[in-house]
């Protein structure tokens, strides 16, 4: 079983709970005021308020589930692999001053950044587009589409930021990347073969185990130490 001592409580789940609290704190007085002012439409205001609580931060909740599923898969790796989740890497070009990486796997055959998506639909696109298209079916059978950020571009940005940070701290190493669609209903169809692996539902552990680096990775211990320090900075 992989080393999971650096896995911390999912930040997305915590944000969902905070969002619900804020909706309750701020939304209740507003709903009460509107119901007082619009007594004939109290039921409409009540329904809107109820749905706002139920739907608070639904995207974050889905993301948290996807990351949890992926972690459960990665835990099956041998104990020579170390897992890290939600690592904030300093990035002065980012608005928040850092770039968040979903999952990082460090093993004897290299370092892997895993970008997790939990879309429950068919997703189409190409590597160069800023967005991909999710083709969804509503509860009543209606079909619609929604834009999703291109995960390959996200992944490559994350790899670049991490590589720069490690190089700055004398822990340079080749970093591989994987886009992983974790939902059981996910289907991905790209217009051309991607430059990084894009996997659906399975095959992630096998890919990492079978990965053959061009040369044996060095600085693995330094990389692990740098990642530990990054986790400590945000804990």
UniProtKB/TrEMBL annotation:
Which UniProt key words apply to this protein?
Membrane, Transmembrane, Transmembrane helix
Entries under InterPro entries matching the protein? NERD (IPR011528)
Describe the location of the NERD domain by residue ranges. Answer: 62-185
Indicate what this protein is called per its UniProt record: Uncharacterized conserved protein
Supply the PROSITE patterns for this chain.
NERD
Q: Which residues cross the membrane?
A: 19-36
What organism is this sequence from?
Idiomarina loihiensis (strain ATCC BAA-735 / DSM 15497 / L2-TR)
Top-rank lineage group of the source organism: Bacteria
């Amino acid at each position: 079983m992989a080393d999971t001592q650096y896995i911390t409580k999912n930040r997305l789940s915590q944000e969902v709970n905070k969002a619900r609290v804020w909706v309750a704190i701020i939304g209740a007085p507003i709903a009460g005021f509107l119901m007082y002012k619009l007594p004939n439409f109290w039921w409409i205001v009540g329904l809107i308020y109820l749905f706002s609580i139920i739907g608070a931060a639904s995207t974050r909740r889905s993301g948290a589930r996807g990351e949890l599923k992926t972690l459960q898969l990665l835990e099956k790796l041998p104990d020579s692999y170390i897992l890290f989740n939600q690592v904030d890497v300093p990035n002065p070009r980012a608005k928040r001053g850092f770039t968040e990486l979903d999952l990082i796997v460090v093993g004897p055959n290299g370092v892997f950044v895993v970008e997790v998506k939990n879309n429950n639909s068919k997703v189409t696109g190409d590597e160069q587009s800023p967005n991909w298209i999710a083709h969804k079916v509503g509860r009543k059978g209606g079909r619609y589409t929604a834009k999703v950020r291109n995960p390959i571009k996200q992944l490559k940005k994350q790899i670049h930021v991490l590589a720069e940070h490690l190089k700055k701290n004398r822990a340079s190493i080749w970093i591989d990347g994987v886009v992983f669609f974790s939902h059981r209903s996910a289907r991905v169809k790209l217009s051309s073969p991607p430059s990084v692996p894009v996997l659906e539902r399975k095959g992630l552990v096998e890919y990492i185990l079978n990965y053959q680096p061009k040369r044996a990775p060095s600085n693995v211990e330094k990389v692990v130490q740098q990642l530990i320090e990054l986790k400590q900075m945000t804990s």
